[in-house]
Specification:
With about 110 residues, the chain is an alpha+beta fold. The protein contains 2 helices and 6 strands, in the order E-H-E-E-H-E-E-E. It comes from Comamonas squillarum.
Length: about 110
């Protein structure tokens, strides 16, 4: 079992250190990070906490999931692995559409 925890629906006032403080009552916190918007510098309303062991992480999840923080009910569960992105435009390097581009017959490259 993983020891990385997703924390969602966080109030915008929560910082890395306050997030770490809230989870440290359940055991040793390896890291705590509130995700920030690059453009505005504001919190995105979610973060990740990494605990020292899976048992400690599960205890924190059980105790904190659904707890009210500054009037918001937070969501606490195990973090899922990040999915690989497909790249810009959604087309892979291998293949794509064969009916677009130059040289596909006639003027303008369209099909007749």
């Amino acid at each position: 079992m993983s020891s990385k925890i997703y924390v969602g629906n966080l109030p915008y006032s929560v910082t890395d250190s306050s997030l770490q403080d809230n989870f440290s009552e359940f055991g040793s916190v390896t890291s705590a990070k509130v995700m920030m918007d690059r453009d505005t510098g504001r919190s995105k309303g979610f973060g990740f906490v990494e605990m020292a062991s899976a048992d400690v992480a599960q205890a924190a999840i059980d105790a904190l999931n659904g707890r009210s923080v500054d009037g918001r009910q937070i969501v606490v569960n195990l973090a899922r692995p990040r999915e690989e992105s497909r790249g810009a435009g959604g087309y892979s390097n291998s293949g794509g559409r064969s009916d677009v581009g130059y040289g596909q017959g006639g003027y303008g490259g369209g099909r007749y």
